Input
Amino acid sequence: MTAILGISAYYHDSAACLVVDGEIVAAAQEERFTRKRHDAAFPHNAMTYCLTSAGLAPEALDYVVFYDKPFLKFDRIFETYLAFAPRGFRSFARSLPVWLKDKLFQRSVITRALEPVFGDIGERLLFSEHHLSHASSAFFPSPFENSAVLTMDGVGEWVTTSVCIGHDNELEILREIHFPHSLGLLYSAFTYYTGFKVNSGEYKVMGLAPYGEPKYADLIRKNLIDVRSDGSFALDMQYFNYCTGLTMTNDRFSELFGGPPRAFEAELTQREMDLAASIQTVVEDVVIRLARSVRAETGLGNLCLAGGVALNCVANGRLLREQIFDQIWIQPAAGDSGGAIGAALAVHYMGLGSKRPSPHGDSMTGSFLGPSYDVNEVERRMSIAGAKFSRLAEDELIRRTAAAIAAGKSIGWHQGRMEFGPRALGARSILADPRSPDTQKRLNLQIKKRESFRPFAPSVLLEDAAEWFELDVESPYMLLVADVALGKRTPLHGEQLPMTGLDRLMVNRSVIPAVTHVDYSARIQTVQYELNPLFHALLTEFKRLTGCPVLVNTSFNVRGEPIVESPEDALSCFMRTEIDVLVVGDCFLEKADQPSHLLQEASFEPD
Ligand SMILES: [Fe+2]
Output
């Protein structure tokens, strides 16, 4: 047996992953346990979960592998500051002590962090490289024997974009683009400029884009980014501040776009929507151009994607529609948490030379790699918490849950193993009826406590997906955007046509308005029986009741907090929001039955 623990930490989204004989047996993000969103601390809890769930003692591990090389990263920070000195001296002086304390001596920091569990880890501690970890997380779990692999993110050590070829148990790097030229950082610069939080507000920019017109796209292309025919690119650093300052953009950037950045939480205007549409268009164009050149360069028909930019499901959807590649597979934990998986698999295949099984399917197994709780344990915990519930047989549980959704209720759904990666896929989800015109507003404002424009995503039975959406491939990880099928759309009335901005939210565009974005698009999860039989049964029952095989599926959390992990997290979120019903294990809880002392104040952190 070969057991390898992958660790990602100290940047954002720390995580641990356990690979045994090439199989990904467990993976989880630290934030779910500590309840700190994007927690970057060493993933003690996630690591302990991985070991205990597999029943492995620490001494049974062959290797612990860190997802990047801290020394190379320090090199980048140091050289970047030197190159820009003395302009960046102030922020350099401010950030240096942090690096000296935590980053420069990261080997010893990691060794010390592992010590309570592993004692002297010694030679068993290995280091992967950031983009190799991403590429490995994209290729090795994919169902492909050969594939082109494209990784794009903010920045790792130096690399921001890489093109590789995956073949059997090998990855060969063809080319790289280096810091400061980065698609991820360009997108983050606009995230910052439109008044959202970098490293978490990028989704909001993507969600806002369809409300705007890409009016600034040419300005961006002319001034900020030089894209060559092969998709390689360079940014004009005169407009950015991330090399030297503590902000992403500078005064020159503000001058170019006609004003200062939007203040955090200030009102959204058409300008931010147009900026979002513009950067989304430009980034999509670069991704498409890169993909075309990768296809021409490698001649391969498959493409694997990872890195934070691969979470841009609108760009992924366009990649699919343009049919540059025959098949695309995207690592569901495409951000840095997934680096833990990639690092462990890189050691297993490339380090140890292990053969990949042949044939092999998608080895992320629906991304259901986190903790689960058996029904008696759930019952025990709910009883201790003082909740009022009924325990139902599976048929009854499905029947009552589907009926509640059809009656307009929102459901907290906590079942089976927690998802790995940013998306809730039917294990830790809030579910609702997509047919209702006010579901989107109600869920956003009353339950998730977030901005009204944020779109919701549909889960659809795989067998019905092509009838309801313009999508003819599986999308088990909710990473592809496609349009609602023409037959399910509702014609617009004359007076609705000139609507602009957020007014467009008020218009019913389809028979499933809660999951139909203003441009008719939807971020789709296809649900197949093999990966999640219970969720599949729920969708099937909802379809039997209503004729609609689609549910709204959003992550089980409120704004600013991580997705729930334990049954207690689920109960707490249920009692803090206007979720009507909680279904956890075989326990069925209705809000109206709960004792009043369990009710909690609603509060949330701005994100
Ligand atoms: Fe990354």
